[in-house]
Amino acid sequence: MAIVIENLLDLVWARATPSVTMTHHPSCDGKMAMAISALSTSGVDDRCRQVGVAEKYLRMAVVEFPDCTAATFYIHKNASGTVLFDLITKFLLMSEKGAGYMGLTYPDRKTNKPRFLCNDKPIAKQVESRDWQFTLAFKFYVSEPAEESDGLTRHYLVEQCRRDIYERRIPTDSETQARLAAYIAQAELGNYEQNEDYGDYIRRGRFSTSVDYEFIVKIQEYHEGLRDLTPQQVELLYLNVCKVLPMYGCHSIETKDTENGVPIEVGVGGVGIVTYEATRGVTNSFAWKLIDKISFRRKYFCVKFLPELPPTDIALEGKSVVFKLASSTAAERFYKLAIEHHEFFRLLRPSPRIKRKSSFFHWASQRFRGRPSHTASSLSTTARHFDVNETIRTIGLEETMDDADMTMDMSVLDRTQVSGEGSVYSLHGSLEDTLREAPEEEQDESDTLLPPLEPVIDHDVELTRAILEATNLNPNMAVERIEVKCESSC
């Protein structure tokens, strides 16, 4: 009888304990386990629950973090992605800059591949599954890990790269995998010590899909040479190796070459747009500074290059590269992802004096939260140059995107143009770039107590500003000519 009462008390105590806890998944194989079986918010940590929502309207969302831990959150059934994302960042005590790199992914119902959640839209309208399972992942990868001072962001980036390499999203050879695995082993185990369980640790460590005796020996050799290095030091060494790997920071989509049917991957990242073949590696790297416009229509994603390019890229002058993707939905998603990466890595903040007209694609600059500071070195960083792959068809602008049913004017100056089943996004606006050359500090000089020094005024730029403010024109349009007419009183 005493045993029965003791078991009953244990059951009551278990139900009274908080139901939202960090759960560790050692395998971290992408199959997320539900951290709780039934919806019960009694004893839930306040950091994991949306405030001011009745329990009957709450819905459970399980989120897996890059380090293979997970937590359960409770939000309104009609809540937007922003609500869940804010709860996660507060729960993890993540910095604003670190959160700006991140996004939430969920498995696509048809392809089972991860898709990024749009924070501005209700979750229920995006996720069709009854079980809300998300993964916190890097949407924008840190370009220079050495400049990232936040320890949590750097640690999560290591774990993200570890998963990308294991799942072959970042292709690399076995020698590099062994070297990177040794860095992780030094961070997690400390100095190398001969142990019978060392081999089991390597097999379970998600370092490679094929682990044999030779691979373990290579890791041991590298590990022995890392003695007395701290976890922070080896994490930085790990990221310095990852950042030069071909597909680091790229989100890719599968397609085929139109001429020979060879499978290729088209990726978008901080450096620009790249193409990758399994047998040849990265075959093309199109830096953002070379691209004039990107567009999509139906299944086609098009990249148009500037009419004037450096001698090393002269073969692409005025040309367009067209990729035929699996579906129109895939083309649109890749197009949006390209816009977001260009906005995040290349564009400076626009001048606050210019009032922009509302646009249908206003979400383009709002789908990510925060923006790391742009330094001169990061803006001048360009992609490594690769020879233009002859198998990628480069064609003239007049041949792009379905001539029979073309309804878009690709030569417009507007940054975004929408038309039926497609859209065009311009990466270069002459007037906008001119306005962004003025540093923000000069705009706040009038607010200081000391008398400001008389600045050097660019009369052309100031005149253009006045015209825009007076006529409320689109700030991306260029003023080509100004006529001054003298009245009779002159």
From TrEMBL:
GO cellular component labels: cytoskeleton; plasma membrane
Pfam family, one: FERM_N
PROSITE patterns (UniProt xref): FERM_3 (PS50057)
Limits of the FERM domain: 59-349
GO biological process: actomyosin structure organization
Top-level taxon of origin: Eukaryota
InterPro entries reported for this sequence: Band_41_domain (IPR019749), FERM/acyl-CoA-bd_prot_sf (IPR014352), FERM_2 (IPR035963), FERM_central (IPR019748), FERM_domain (IPR000299), FERM_N (IPR018979), FERM_PH-like_C (IPR018980), PH-like_dom_sf (IPR011993)
Protein name (record): FERM domain-containing protein
The species this protein was found in: Steinernema glaseri
UniProt lineage: Eukaryota, Metazoa, Ecdysozoa, Nematoda, Chromadorea
